């Protein structure tokens, strides 16, 4: 009995060690986003709260926590309050299988990839329930848009991950990264380049980020599925959206950019002087770049029209992934390059 | 051929990358933000902000109650009642009110005034806290005039040769 309690305690501590930095990272992602978009628009962004505005996210959190949670009349109260939790739980749970370093992973699961796919798609229930329980037409339209978008891009994303699966021959995230051992030219981004691009764009679409943010569509449906939410319940949606952004960035780094691996592995001199950098720092650096790219995209592109989104998802991404999977098959069977050498059959 | 061109154009994401390059460049550009309360944009001496009623240097109010400003006001924001003053019987306003919600800051009142009484100062950051505060009374307008008289006089002097 005592063992179980101790086990629970240890696991709980580990979860805390992942989630607390994650929540902090989310807070400062919002700050980075406002700053970067501000800079790209030749403004300076938030700079009033604390030195250089560093305390702005803290102030935002306090503001959100102190606000009243309004349940609209006619809303289904139980579901209305359940939806944010349904949305945020999977986006946190997905972090369980993320390896931060060779040995640093909460659950070293052999079906990590499937688990990630399952967790990122299950969040759509939170969106649908939020839209429906709000008893508001804008929320409903937003949630339907979001659901169709997530499901459409899930397919292209799944196909892109099939490519990763074929290349590495494993669903264990740690082993996927270890399969990319060697310098940066050993990573999967070269043979899987089209899949990387598609995975990345689908990831942006999945997190409902600009330019795929029509579930929010401020100009037409106010804020989409979370119009009726205020205070802490809105904060949960916000938190989950940004946690998903970070998750997609980390996953891209893991699948295509060698996760915690040193990019200069195998280069005689540079490897020695960068050898002291811990693996987690490389992972965070790579993920940080993709996070920056996501913000950069938002500062650059206008929102897609709805039919354009559907066309891109179904008529461009899915065919391209299928074609590239076939090319990839030949590449693997031919044992191409540093990536698949030793696996060729010819 | 053009189809092929289009194919490569869209699949190499050329257009998107061009867009990203532009925003990427702007990230490093000089920022144009003015930190408002500490920094201010330069103002013209003809700036039209908060209204004021002026006095002569001897303390006598300038306004003679001619109601030209009331007549010219396109937003009908000015309300004037005029009559003889108790002690000396000169024509003065008994009521002079400007509804700041109606005012469009066109400056016609200032232009129409034969004695340079009603003027618009350079003050542009002010607020009202209670309903009804938006209607400035004669006493308030005179107080504003007293407070900013130096600036007002300076601005009129600079502009005098063009009037």
The oligomeric state of the chains shown is heterodimer
Shape type of chain A: globular
Order of helices and strands of chain B: HHEHEEHEEH
**Number of E-type strands of chain B:** 5
Q: Mean of the pLDDT scores of chain A? A: 85
Computed over alpha carbons, the radius of gyration of chain A is 21 Å
Summarize the main sheet of chain A. Answer: none
Name the helicity range of chain B.
Answer: 25-40%
Distance between the termini of chain B: 68 Å
Structural class of chain A: mainly alpha
Overview of this structure, please?
The complex is a heterodimer of chains A (346) and B (163). With 346 residues, chain A is mainly α. Chain A folds into two domains: 1-63; 67-340, no CATH class. Chain A is 67% helix and 0% strand. Chain A has 13 helices and no strands. Chain A has helices at residues 2-40, 56-66, 77-93, 112-133, 137-168, 173-178, 193-206, 218-221, 231-256, 268-273, 279-300, 306-333, 337-340. Chain A is globular and about 70 Å long. The N and C termini of chain A lie far apart (57 Å). Helices cover 34% and strands 15% of the residues of chain B. In chain B, the strands form two sheets. A three-stranded antiparallel beta sheet of chain B has the order 2-3-5. A two-stranded antiparallel sheet of chain B has the order 1-4. The model of chain B has no long low-confidence stretch (mean pLDDT 89). Chain B is built from five helices and five strands, in the order ααβαββαββα. Chain B is an alpha+beta fold and 163 residues long. In chain B, a hairpin with a 6-residue loop joins strand 2 and strand 3 (91-99). The chains are: A mainly alpha (346), B alpha+beta (163).
